[in-house]
Write a structure and sequence with these properties.
single chain; 417 residues; alpha/beta; TIM Barrel; Membrane-bound Lytic Murein Transglycosylase D, Chain A; 2 domains; 8-stranded mixed barrel; two-stranded parallel ribbon; 13 helices; 19% strand
Length: 417
């Protein structure tokens, strides 16, 4: 009788353990021991020495989006992160709506990261689906990932939020590719949630992180050792698979009479960014003939903030004023007048154009003698507004007597110049 009871208990425990393993479906693949961040052009210039000293070990860098957008800060983020001994990985933001577009985007991603040496697995960031059904979404994801691995000879994983990991991506995809999950609540809760994956190798646990060396918020992550590539080697040259990107930096040669503030306004950046990127010791001391590195795509078509306010557009090769005017539903005359353009048929790649919408508080060309105001929109930050208008945060604080730079409100009017 006793033996039967013991046997019954053993069987009961065994069955329960199976049930528990099925229910407690999402756990780390191993210990979450690596501190990380993921970054893009939204963070601006990053001091990676301070980031490293803050305890960050891994940085995932946005490389590309769609078929022709290279992140403006990709190269300098890679160079400086590597120079400071951080482990790096690259991600692509997918916008494809079919498998043909997925192949083109994979080609483009591979071309952008050609010649670089990542330490961590590549990542597909796929979170907007354009009305595609579940089967098509999984087909698009698999097509992109297979093509990327074919071109780069590197493993790739998927970044997903919990909802899509449960309801959108299927188990066959989970069997072949690892998961980096975005989940901002207590991660211990994940052991009670079933998804297509049983484990994850990275978790983005907040988008409001603060790290020394980075202005404003940054995504914070934890990773397991499975995030690393089995071998690290340079990604093969895939530049022949796609057309050149439209998001490059330019080299500017200082002319007599130039000042950093004037150059910053012209190219839609800030004095501090020019100082940081070019390692300038004294911002008031620059010389004719010196070369400056300037990012030329601080605003990318499709990523501008529309509504009350001003859009800064950076001219790209092949642009015309009539084309730009049509894109933003304004007249050529509007752009000409606002930017003091002498010859509408003569604009240059890298040139900054201000385009204001009909409900802006005040329209004005860039002129230090004219006061310009900006109406705060939902989601605005003072740092973002400063970058948009090519001035410093301190200038905005000084002009507006703002006691708390982290506290501004939609509808508030900010003096720019």
């Amino acid at each position: 009788m006793l033996k039967k009871c013991i046997l019954g208990i053993v069987i009961f425990v065994f069955v329960c353990s199976i049930q528990i393993n099925c229910t407690y479906a999402l756990t780390p693949a191993s210990g979450l021991v690596y501190q990380g961040i993921d970054v893009s052009n939204w963070q601006g210039y990053i001091n990676y020495e301070e980031v490293r000293n803050a305890g960050i070990q891994i940085v995932y860098i946005k490389a590309s989006q769609g078929t022709n957008i290279k992140d403006a800060y990709f190269d300098i983020n890679y160079e400086n992160a590597k120079a400071n001994g951080l482990h790096v990985g690259f991600y692509h933001f997918l916008t494809a709506t079919n498998t043909e577009e997925a192949i083109k985007e994979a080609n483009f991603f591979a071309s952008v990261i050609s010649g670089k040496t990542p330490d961590c697995k590549l990542v597909l960031d796929y979170e907007t689906f354009g009305g595609a059904g579940r089967q098509e979404i999984n087909s698009i994801a698999r097509t992109f990932m297979e093509r990327t691995e074919e071109l780069t000879k590197k493993q790739i994983i998927l970044y997903s939020d919990l909802s899509n990991a449960r309801n959108t991506f299927d188990t066959s995809l989970a069997e072949d590719y690892g998961l980096w999950i975005a989940y901002y609540e207590n991660r211990n809760n994940l052991i009670n949630i079933e998804t297509s994956w049983n484990t994850y190798i990275g978790i983005q646990y907040t988008d409001r992180g603060n790290v020394n060396g980075i202005n404003g918020n940054v995504d914070r992550d934890l990773y397991t050792e499975e995030i690393f590539l089995g071998e690290t080697s340079e990604i093969p040259n895939n530049s022949g698979n796609t057309s050149p990107t439209n998001t490059e930096s330019i080299e500017y040669i200082i002319k007599s009479g130039d000042t950093l503030s004037a150059i910053a306004r012209r190219y839609g950046t800030t004095v501090q960014e020019l100082v940081d990127i070019n390692h300038i010791q004294n911002p008031d001391l620059i010389y004719p003939g010196e070369k400056l590195r300037i990012f030329t795509n601080s605003s990318i078509p499709g990523n501008e903030e529309r509504g009350t306010g001003s859009i800064t557009y950076i001219v790209k090769r092949g642009n015309t004023l009539s084309q730009i005017a049509r894109t933003y539903n304004v007249s050529v005359e509007h752009i000409v007048e606002l930017n003091d353009i002498e010859n509408p048929n003569l604009i240059y790649p890298g040139e900054k154009l201000r385009i204001t919408e009909s409900n802006v508080t005040q329209l004005s060309p860039i002129d230090d003698t004219i006061e310009v105001y900006y109406v705060v929109k939902n989601g605005d930050t003072l740092n973002g507004i400063a970058r948009k208008f090519g001035i410093t945060l301190n200038e905005i604080l000084q002009y507006n007597n703002i006691p708390n730079p982290n506290l501004i409100f939609p509808g508030q009017t900010i003096k720019i110049v």
